């Protein structure tokens, strides 16, 4: 394996002849590819591969939300990428078929006790309690970022993928931490069409506090609900 610093041709990723390239923290890492590879078909190995695939999709959906990326960046091991940090924290919770209620959007934070939540045909709704009952917020924490994933599963048509995940977020300026809040995250046209194809869903919600300048301060735990 080789690491290139100050690469004049820019960051690389993908296959380069007998080498594979990826970019980690702005550095290009080159590694030799095996000349041949016979994938094991043992049931235990296949299960691990399926869990890898499920967790990778879940991690990618998390990294589509900028506020959650900032949270994971604060806690990650300096020798690991953010993706790897998210992946390793979720792998043990994933099943071979789909993510589960135990998967998490962010590292452990203050409790998020949502009283009611629903995944509807065209939106997510949730009733957030007054957050000052769950944590102490400093004067600099003035904005809130609400982040959600929905994992749709049990497709009506067996030809569709076993599950699909969408990522949603909403920024609320001058948030009042002493009052309950009615959260609504609207689906776009593609989300609506996707939701119509599946019978069930898992909702994941995490909120993040921010300063007026957009700096992430703290996060909640992950709220989940099956429907």
General description of the model:
The chain has 227 residues and is an alpha+beta fold. The chain folds into 2 domains: 2-32, no CATH class; 43-226, Sandwich (Immunoglobulin-like), CATH 2.60.40. Helices cover 21% and strands 34% of the residues. The protein has helices at 43-62, 66-75, 82-91, 189-195; strands at 2-4, 14-16, 19-24, 27-32, 117-119, 123-128, 143-155, 163-172, 181-186, 198-210, 216-219, 223-226. Strands 7, 8, 10, 11 and 12 form a 5-stranded antiparallel beta sheet that branches. It has a 4-stranded antiparallel beta sheet with strand order 1-4-3-2, with no helix packed on it. The chain has a 3-stranded antiparallel beta sheet with strand order 5-6-9, with no helix packed on it. Helix 1 (43-62) packs across helix 3. It starts with a strand and ends with a strand.
Outline the fold blueprint:
Elements: E1 2-4, E2 14-16, E3 19-24, E4 27-32, H1 43-62, H2 66-75, H3 82-91, E5 117-119, E6 123-128, E7 143-155, E8 163-172, E9 181-186, H4 189-195, E10 198-210, E11 216-219, E12 223-226
Antiparallel strand pairs: 1-4, 2-3, 3-4, 5-6, 6-9, 7-8, 7-10, 10-11, 10-12
Helix pairs in contact: 1-3
Pick out its properties:
227 residues, alpha+beta, 2 domains, 4 helices, 21% helix
Compact summary:
Helix content is 21%, strand content 34%.
User: Could you tell me the number of beta strands?
Assistant: 12
- Helix share, percent: 10-25%
Broad shape = globular
CATH class of the largest domain: Mainly Beta
Ranges where pLDDT stays below 50 over 5 or more residues in a row are none
- Per the CATH scheme, the topology name of the largest domain is Immunoglobulin-like
For the record, the count of structural domains works out to 2
- Please write the string of helix (H) and strand (E) elements: EEEEHHHEEEEEHEEE
The end-to-end distance, rounded to whole angstroms, is 46 Å
Total number of helices: 4
Radius of gyration: 20 Å
For the sheet with most strands, the description reads: 5 strands, antiparallel
Write the CATH homologous superfamily of the largest domain: Immunoglobulins
Helix vs. strand class: alpha+beta
Mean pLDDT across residues = 88
CATH architecture of the largest domain, please?
A: Sandwich
């Amino acid at each position: 394996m080789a690491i290139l610093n100050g690469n004049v041709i820019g960051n690389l990723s993908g296959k380069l002849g007998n080498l594979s390239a990826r970019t980690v923290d702005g550095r290009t890492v080159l590694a030799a590819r095996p000349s041949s590879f016979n994938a094991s078909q043992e049931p235990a190995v296949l299960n691990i591969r399926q869990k890898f695939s499920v967790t990778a999709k879940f991690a990618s959906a998390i990294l589509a939300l900028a506020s959650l990326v900032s949270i994971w960046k604060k806690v990650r091991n300096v020798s690991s990428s953010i993706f790897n940090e998210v992946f390793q924290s979720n792998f043990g919770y994933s099943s071979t078929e789909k993510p589960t209620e135990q998967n998490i959007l962010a590292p452990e934070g203050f409790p998020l006790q949502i009283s009611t939540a629903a995944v509807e045909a065209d939106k997510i709704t949730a009733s957030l309690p007054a957050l000052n009952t769950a944590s102490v917020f400093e004067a600099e924490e003035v904005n809130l970022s609400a982040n959600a994933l929905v994992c749709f599963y049990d497709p009506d048509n067996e030809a569709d993928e076993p599950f699909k995940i969408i990522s949603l977020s909403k920024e609320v300026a001058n948030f009042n931490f002493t009052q309950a809040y009615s959260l609504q995250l609207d689906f776009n046209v593609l989300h609506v069409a996707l939701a119509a194809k599946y019978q069930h869903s898992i909702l994941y919600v995490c909120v993040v506090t921010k300063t007026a300048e957009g700096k992430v301060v703290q996060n909640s735990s992950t709220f989940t609900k099956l429907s």
